[in-house]
Please model this.
Amino acid sequence: MRRGFWTSAMKAIKDADIVLFVLDARMPELSRNRDLETKLEESNKEFLIVFNKIDLVSKEVLKKLKKENPNAFFVSSGKNININNLYLALQSKLEKSPHEKLEIGIVGYPNVGKSALTNVLSQSVKTQVSSRAGTTKGNQWAVSSQFKIIDSPGVIPFGDDEAKLGILGAKNPEKLKNPELVATEIIKIFLKLNPEKLEKFYEFKIQGNDEYEIMLQIGHAKNLLKKGGLVEENRTCVMIIRDWQTGRLKI
Model:
């Protein structure tokens, strides 16, 4: 992971009374930054697991996720869903804080919605929010009447492969060396969890179960063709990745 971002995240953990460890509800295991989780456990700092972007998953997927993580919080910072439950839980910690305001650190992978969560909890728009990875460059503060929130930049462990970073939105589509690999992995997620959503979004009917062939079918459906009727593969893959990263393509 980039050393400066790692240092910022560790400082957010050190300075906070409590830490919010933010994951993407669409990819609970993929977005679980194990290095950060280990550091949190070693710090003995209280932390809450928050699954964000629940508006981008089906009711069935969310029900399963809640069953598997009974002590976590499930929110959508973009749609302001279930934020009050998290707010009240944090408010209850205030009287134990040695500070006038509860100091909250927010950590996780890039693009899991940390800045949007910071803004909605602090009821401010001071922290920049974007679907592009790497928007937060250093620790940023947002202050409300009860909370002082530290939004840290997303950190990426060494060894994370490009497919994972593309799916997580931790690497922008135009910077990927192999967008085909990322796009077919996204298709694989839909084939496993909800193929009908993929068909409905791109207005086509899946033929077969080969992810590469399905990518070509999507290209044909969206008329992304070269001369001779061949699919523009790179353009199709980038479109799929961007639709996924921006939340237009939902499970």
Summary: The mean pLDDT is 85.
